[in-house]
Amino acid sequence: MTAATSATGQPAGGTPAAASPVTTGSEKRAEMLAGYALIVVPMLLFLVLNIGSVLYEVFVSLWKWNVRTGPQQFRGIQNYQTLFADDIFWRAVQNTVYYAVIWVPLTMALGLFLAVIVNQKLRGQAFFRAAYYFPAIASSVAITILWIFIMSPEGLFNTVRGAIGINPLFAALGFSANQNWIGDERTALNTVIILNAWTTSGTFMLFYLASLQTISGEVYEAAALDGASWWQTFRRITFPLLRPAHYFVATVALIGALQLFDQAYVAGGVGGDPNNALMTVVLYLFNAAVSQANFGYAAAVGVVLFAIIFTATLVQRRLFGSTPSWL
Amino acid sequence: MTTEAAPARVQDTPVATHAGDTGAKWRRRIVYVFLIGYAILMFIPFTWSVVTSFKTLPDSVQLTFIPNPFTTAGWEFAVTQLEPPIQVLFLNSFVIASAVTLTNLVLGSMAGYAFARLRFPGRELLFLVVLATLMIPDQLRLVPVYLLFNGIGFTRGVGQYFGVITVLAISATSIFLLRQYFLSIPRDLEEAAKIDGAGFFTTFVRVMLPLAGPALAAVAILQFQGTWNSFFWPLLLLGDKAHWTLPLGLGFFRTAGGYANNWPPLMATVVLATIPVLVLYIFFQRYFVEGIAASGVKG
Fold first, then answer.
1. What is the mean pLDDT of chain A?
2. Sign of CA pseudo-dihedral A43, B113, A208, A107
3. Of A7, A131, A139, the CB nearest to B39
4. Is A41 helix (H, G, I), strand (E, B) or coil?
5. Tell me, what's the pLDDT at A321?
6. Which of residues 170-189 of B touch A (CB under 8 A)?
7. What pLDDT is attached to residue B150?
C-alpha cells in the first residue's frame, strides 16, 4: 500500500521545473492506455482461469455434467448430498486435516529453528542455507520415488536402524525390522508428513530469514546489556517480532497442506492406497473428474475444498490477529 | 568482535569471563554439530540415489556405499528401455519449461512495470485481484479449466502443450517480484528519458528492463524450476504419452510402468530428472534464495 502513495506522489529529485503536475489531458490518457495495454493479457488470463473458474465451478457443481456435451441434468444440491454421504470423502477430509494439523506446525518450527541458527555469525553460513534449501529444488515426483525407496521394507532407513541397533526401540512401538513404512496404512501418512517436512523446512527457513534480517541489531544489543539469556532473547524479542512472518508462513503452509496431492498420488496411486490411508481431498477430486469423468460431482468437491480453505484461512487470521498489508 | 572484547576482559573478573567463554564455546560446538548433521541429512537421500543407480538390483538393497559390482546397466536401461523414451520426456519438459519461463518474463515485466509506475484508474484494485489469485489453489480449478480447455481443443494433440503453457503462462508471484523491483529503481532515470521525449513503452524497454536484470533472473529461474518439476497440470492436460514431461514419466514408471521395484534404473531416472535443476541451483543459488525470500516478504 505504501507503493500507492509513493507512485501518486511527486517524483523525487526531478528537474526544478517540476511543473509536471500540470500534465495535459492527452498525456494522462496516453499513460492510462499504456497501463491497460501492459496488463491486459495477464488480467484476462487471471479473470478467466482464476476468478471465472471459481464461479464456473459453482455452476457446474449443480449439474450432472458431460465432458463433451456439457450440462446433462440439473441436480441442485444432489451432488453435495451424495458427497457428504460418502465415507471415502470423509476419510479424505480426515486425512487432509490430520496432515495439515501435524505438518504445518512441525515444518514451521523446523524452518524457524533453522533460520534462527543460520542467522548467527557462522563459518559456512551461505553453505548451510544453500544445503537446507536444496531438497526443495527437486521435483516432488522424483523425491517421493526416492523416499519410497528409502522407506521400503529393504530400504536404507530399515537397514540403517538395524545396523546401529535401535530396532528394539521400534519393536517396542510395534514395528518389525522390515516395516513397509509407505505401504502400511498405519504409517503411510506420517511417512509422507516427514518427507514433506524434510523438503519444505528449507523454504520456510528462507521466509523466516528474510524477516529476521529486518530486525535491527540494536534490539539485541539492548537485550544483551540487560543480561538476557539466549532463550529469553528468543522468547521475548525474536519470536514476537516475527509475528508477520508467522502469519505469512502459516498461511502459505496451510493452503499448501490442504492441497496435498503429488506425494499421495505417486505413493498411493489414484486410490490413495493402502486402504485409503493416502486419500486426500484433492486426490478424491482428481479421481471423480479424471477416473470417473463425473465432472459435476468433482466440481462439488472443489467448492467444498474452497470452503474448507477459506474457513481455515479466516480462523488463522483470527488466531494471529494481524493482517499483512497485501491481504 | 574479539578486538572490542579484549579491553573489557581485563576489567572483568577473569574467572567469570572464562566460564562464560567456555559456555559460549560449547554452545557454538553444539550448533556446528547440529548444522553439519542436518546438512548431511539433506544430502544423504540424493547421494543414495546416485549410488543405487550404479548398483545391480540385488546389491541395491544392501547397506554399502560402493556399488559391488559397479554397473551402468541401470543407466543403460533408463536411457534405452523406457517407454516413452526418456529423451522425449526431457525434450517435452524443456520445451514447456522454457515457454512458461518466457511468458512469465514478458507478461510479468510488462504488468510489473505498469503496476509500479503507470497511473490508471483501478490500478490498486486490479493489483489486489492479482494477489488474490494466490489464494485460489490450482487443484481447485481442475474442473473448470479442464472443461474450458477441452472445449477449445487444448486437451487434444499438440493443443495439450498449449493447455499446460496457458495455465502456467503468468503467475502472480512473477508480477509481484518484478513490481517490487521496479518500485526500488530511482525515478530520475525515467524522468531523464521523459525529457528526451521517450514514451512509456520506450522508457520501459530501454530504461527499466535493462535495470531489472536481477529480478528477471530470479523470475526466470523460479519459473523454469517450478515448471520443470510441475506435476498436477501436466498430469491433467497431457493425455498423450508422446507429450509427457519427466515427472509424468517417472510417476508412470513407478506406478503403472512395471518398474515398480527395479531400483537402479528408477534411481537413474530420478538423478537424470534432478540434474538440470541441480545445475541451475549450483550456478544461480543466489537468485533462488533471493527470489524465494523476496516472495516471502510482504509488499
1. 85
2. positive
3. A131
4. helix
5. 62
6. 170, 172, 175, 179, 183, 186-188
7. 92
Question: Residue A295 contacts by C-beta under 8 Å, 6 or more apart in sequence?
Answer: A60, A65, A66, A67, A288, A289, B143, B146, B147
Q: How many CA atoms lie within 13 Å of B74's alpha carbon, on the beta-carbon side?
A: 29
Instruction: State the Cα–Cα distance between residues A310 and B33, nearest whole angstrom.
Output: 42
Sign, CA dihedral A176-A260-A284-A271, equals: negative
- Residue A222 pLDDT level (bands cut at 50, 70, 90): confident
In this prediction the ipTM stands at 0.86
Contact between chains at A50 and B61 (C-beta distance less than 8 A): no
Question: Could you say which of B118, B142, B273 has the minimum Cβ distance to residue A139?
Answer: B273
Rounded alpha-carbon distances, angstroms, from residue A239 to A210, A243, A244, B173: 14, 7, 10, 27
What confidence tier does A19 reach under pLDDT thresholds 50, 70, 90?
very low
Q: Does B240 touch chain A (CB under 8 A)?
A: no
* Disruptive mutation site among B140, B146, B232 for chain A (greatest number of A CBs within 10 Å): B140
The segments of chain B whose pLDDT lies below 50 read: 1-18, 298-299
Q: Is A46 close to B130, i.e. CB distance below 8 A?
A: yes
pLDDT for res A318: 78
Cβ pair A132:B170 closer than 8 A: no
- Which residue has 528401455 as its cell numbers? B81
More confident residue, A20 or A45: A45
Name the band, by pLDDT with cuts 50, 70 and 90, for residue A86. very high
The whole-number pLDDT of residue B293 equals: 72
CB–CB contact A56 B294 (8 Å): no
**A231 and chain B: CB distance < 8 Å anywhere?**
no
Helix (H) or strand (E) holding A102: helix A87-118
Chain B residues with CB under 8 Å of A132 CB are: 38-39, 42
- In chain A, positions 67-96, which contact chain B (CB-CB < 8 Å)? 67-68
Cβ–Cβ gap A305/B139 under 8 Å: yes
H or E element that contains B248: helix B246-255
Give the pLDDT confidence score for residue B258 in this predicted structure.
63
Q: What is the DSSP string of A184-245?
A: STTTHHHHHHHHHHHHHHHHHHHHHHHHHTTS-HHHHHHHHHTT--HHHHIIIIIHHHTHHH
Give A-chain residues touching B193 at CB under 8 angstroms: none
Domain limits, chain A:
86-320
Give the whole-angstrom CA distance, residue A246 versus residue A229.
Answer: 23
Nearest to A3 by CA among B106, B61, B117, B63: B117
The string of pLDDT tens digits covering residues A256-274 is: 899 899 999 998 888 888 8
Alpha helices in B54-118 (DSSP H): 73-80, 86-117
User: What's A50's DSSP letter?
Assistant: I
Position A26 confidence tier, pLDDT thresholds 50, 70, 90? confident
Domains and CATH numbers, chain B: 2-75 (no CATH), 82-296 (1.10.3720.10)
B-chain residues near A14 (CB < 8 A): 187-188, 191
Q: What is the pLDDT of residue B254?
A: 82
For A166-210, the pLDDT digits (tens) are: 888 888 888 888 888 988 889 999 999 999 999 999 999 999 988
Cell numbers found for residue B179: 513490481
Query: For the domain bounded by A86-320, which CATH number is listed?
Result: 1.10.3720.10
Grid coordinates standing for A296?
459435476
